[in-house]
Specification:
With about 230 residues, the protein is of the alpha/beta class. Helices cover about 40% and strands about 15% of the residues. Strand 4 and strand 5 form a beta hairpin. Helix 1 packs parallel to helix 7. The protein binds flavin mononucleotide.
Length: about 230
């Protein structure tokens, strides 16, 4: 059994393209691997707390020297890190806001990048002091959307896209080096190009789910008996 953690960062509910793509991803995944656990985190509706002075002081104090107040200041962050540690696949619906990720997603990132938990710092290695601490084999899927178009690398607005590059850098820093991304464009134009972009993105999501589940223990609910479903790994 694998664990799929899905994250929605759009402030919109109805009409959100990233939520739509993320839902499609989860539905297709569930259809192929009904035995997997799916965990939902809606940070668009329930944003993680921004880091505070107390948070920083606690995060950079060794665990055995933390006061009860410090442990409390890190409780939310610890829960988010525990959840991420348990995930095999992280699928994040992340719109572009002002050329970057929404502040809610940035708050999530600030909570999960934790010295001693998700990355290590070793002063005795001055040329390369940082170590990724997340277990290997995790995969990241970024499902994005933007109002304008041409944000892929090398395209007219590519140099202004700080969504996928930023997320991929952060997750790679923690040890998640396999990342995939799919995006919808033209939301502001709301014309045929948006319709085509959405259809293309949906097709890519379906293909990506097949690719990621390929070689895993793929089976459909219809093809499994109840006992097989209960014991499938
Ligand atoms: C606060 C805000 C900032 C935005 N900034 C940009 C931007 O910098 N570039 C862009 O192309 N679209 C921008 N957009 C458009 C969104 O990326 C687009 O509407 C996208 O579809 C939002 O994702 P969602 O459909 O999942 O809500 C912005 C939208 C909002 C609400």
């Amino acid at each position: 059994m694998l664990t799929l953690l899905h994250i929605d960062a759009s402030a919109r509910g109805k009409g959100s393209h990233t939520r739509r793509l993320r839902r499609l991803f989860t539905e297709r995944w569930r259809a192929l691997r009904p035995q997997d656990e799916v965990i939902a985190r809606d940070i668009g509706r329930h944003p993680p707390s921004a880091v505070t002075e107390a948070w920083v002081a606690a995060a950079f104090t060794k665990p055995d020297r933390r006061t009860p107040d410090m442990r409390m200041a890190l409780a939310e962050s610890d829960a988010l890190v525990d959840e991420l540690e348990g995930a095999d696949v992280v699928v994040a619906g992340v719109p572009m806001y002002n050329f970057g990720m929404p502040s809610t997603m940035k708050a999530y990132i600030d909570n999960i990048v934790r010295v001693g938990r998700t990355f290590g710092f070793d002063r005795s290695r001055p040329d390369d002091p940082y170590l990724p601490l997340l277990s290997s084999g995790k995969r990241l899927v970024i499902l994005s959307a933007r109002g304008d178009y041409g944000y892929a690398s090398g395209e007219r607005m590519g140099h202004l896209n700080h969504v996928e590059p930023h997320l991929k850098s952060v997750f790679a820093f923690l040890g998640v080096t396999e990342a995939h991304s799919i995006a919808v464009e033209y939301d502001e134009f709301a014309d045929d190009r948006l319709t085509r972009s959405l259809a293309e993105a949906e097709g890519l999501v379906e293909r990506l789910v097949r690719k990621l589940t390929n070689g895993l223990d793929v089976c459909s609910p219809q093809s499994m008996s109840a006992p097989a479903r209960a014991t499938a790994r």
